Amino acid sequence: MVQFTTIVNATLEKVWEYLIYKIEKPEHFVPGVSDVVISEKNSDFVLRQMTVTTPDNKTILKEKITFIPYKVRFLLLEHPTLEGYVDNDIRMISETETEMTFTINWIDKTTQIEINNQELAKNAVLKTKTYIEEN
Prior knowledge:
The structure is a single chain. The protein has 135 residues and is an alpha+beta fold. It is 22% helix and 51% strand. The chain is built from two helices and seven strands. It has a seven-stranded antiparallel β-sheet, covered by helices on one side. Strand 4 (58-68) and strand 5 form a beta hairpin. The radius of gyration is 14 Å and the shape is globular. It starts with a strand and ends with a helix. The relative contact order is 0.25. The mean pLDDT is 96.
């Protein structure tokens, strides 16, 4: 498990709105995302499929996304090599600042070894922070 935390210069409500927006429009927050399909959406969860393209490969994955203030969990349902989840948590620091933490809890399906990519967590948080602050 890896975590990265930063302070976003925005209200708790604004950051929460963008985390919810991220569910349906992940391409603004996650590099290489395309072909996003929402197959089910209700007040408890969203089922989403998307393609993630990196320099090394192209991966199609399916997720079940749950959201309760102020946590969004992206649970992998189908992925060729990984299992686990990513949590996006926020909490108010002040009227104009919100603490945002992403926790990546992925395990390699074959080896059962945790994926400890701190740089991935950091980049995901900072990309989301930048998008929220600039929009």
